Amino acid sequence: MATSKYENYTKEQLIEKVKLLEKQRYGLVWEDKPEEIADQCERELPVLVEVKDKEITLDPTKPTNFIFEGDNYHTLFTLNFTHKRKVDVIYIDPPYNTGNKSWRYNNDYIDKEDRFRHSKWLSFMSKRLRLARRLLKETGIIICAIDDYEFASLKLLFDTVFGEQNRLGTLVVVHNPRGRNDDKFFASQHEYILVYAKNSDKAIVNHFELNDDDRDQYKKSDDISSFAETSFVRTGNNSKRSERPNLFYPIYYNETTMQLSLLRQDGWEELLPINNGNEEKTWRWGQDTFNELQATELFVKKVKGINKIYKKRRLTDTTGKKPKTVWYDPKYDASSNGIMLLQKILGRDNTFNYPKSIYAVKDILEITTNKDSLVLDFFAGSGTTGQAVLELNRQDNGNRQFILCTNNENQICEEVTYPRIKKVIEGYGNKAGIEANVKYFKTDYVPYVITDNDKRTLVSRSTELLCISENTFEVVAQNEKQGFSIFKNKDQFTAIIYDEDSIERCCKEIIKIDPQHKLIIYVFSYDHTYDEADFATLTMRFYVKPIPEAILNVYRKISKLKRK
After folding, report:
1. d(C-alpha 21, C-alpha 10), whole Å
2. How far is CA 468 from CA 59, 64, 131, 544, in A?
3. Helix pair 72-82, 463-470: axis angle to 10 deg
4. Cα dist from 283 to 179, 271, 274, 487, whole Å
5. Is residue 24's pLDDT more than 70?
6. What percent of the chain has pLDDT over 70?
7. 487: which strand partners?
8. Domains of the chain: residue spans and CATH
9. N or C: which terminus of the chain has fewer CB atoms within 10 Å of its end residue's CB?
């Protein structure tokens, strides 16, 4: 008799399986495939190590951007400590799982013959999306480019992780107007962009700025401003009389004086919101608003011999152009504004397969970010997202910040991602540089914390994690032999005490510095406690966080998340 795979499950694993079966009524189900990269975090904990010779600092008053070299599961692991609920927008362009060995799972390239290639891809994406969701603010938005190979599965996965109610839209981008001629039946021209919010009730999608063609629509003008005309009869949803009966009422028009009124008067024509199909619709305004605004905002003109009321749509009242779901524009061509642009920046060919059009990324970020947004791309590839963020900052004098995460397979991070960002900052060809600051980190590992010695090791390797978390990089005092370091930015000081015997020395240094701003103190502790009396000499306001417990607490929660 064949042995069931469930016979080797632990009690806890069986309980989780039962919970899953009870919970899953509709949606995406696949055979979860273990991933060595994720399992590694059960044995080792990822930390970050700065590569100092790749640091770029041109203007200390501007925000610091980050490039993380390492597997994105591990960088997302660390970001869950440093940037939980801090990210405004995530943009990703994951591997499309074409079956052409375009990505690896457990160190093996995945091809079309792999019977579990879809399950492996979903396992791979699910783990990363669940980690990524924790990074978003409540107002945060995640954007994902994908093509037909995994679009259907990915949409269901996003519905599962982020909630169907938080789907903001699905865009179609024509990125190859010539069509892909090696397709058997139809020459593919497009790919998709999924846009989801962490909470759709709190998310904001901006309008595009009007271009010259849009402004040309506002050809008419009066004493107030330029305007375009639109019918005063409502169309679309909730436009029927039965749906909004209070917006169905007669308006009277004097053709001689060109006046409108709600009062019936002899010789005045009655006008009702009835469309060309003789359907009873509604007006755009209620009667109070009509009385308040009609004198300046409404007018009547004859259309095929019939008097019609029109509303003035003023240029001064327009917030821009609502984004549409089909993006068709030559600037989205991934060949001319992706591949060829990258070659121009780096000055060499064959640098990276299939980079996105810089304009496609800029436009999606333009409508989902504000001037101070933090943008994360954990499939950073050639670094298009980083360049898009910098160009948007130059465009509107913004202070957006990026975090780019990519592995270094084929030296992509060192030879493409970082050099591209460096060139954009310094300038290339006839393009002027864009002032910005960048720090470059690699992932490294420490043993999973079991012993007290493991705790000390983790704390000794956590300086970069803590500085990134608090955004304090300027060294005030750094003396690891003395057992502490102090860093600052313009708003805050961060003290790190690596050894409980160094608390007194660190406090004396803090008193000498006399920080006038917010002060965070990380102090080594074997558990999650500390002795308030140790800091009694400090008179300024401060907040103490025991380490490594502050880090371990986050990492434990993530490990539980992986098993769900």
Report:
1. 17
2. 18, 10, 18, 17
3. 60
4. 45, 11, 9, 62
5. no
6. 93
7. 475, 494
8. 32-208+323-443 (3.40.50.150), 212-317 (no CATH), 449-562 (no CATH)
9. N
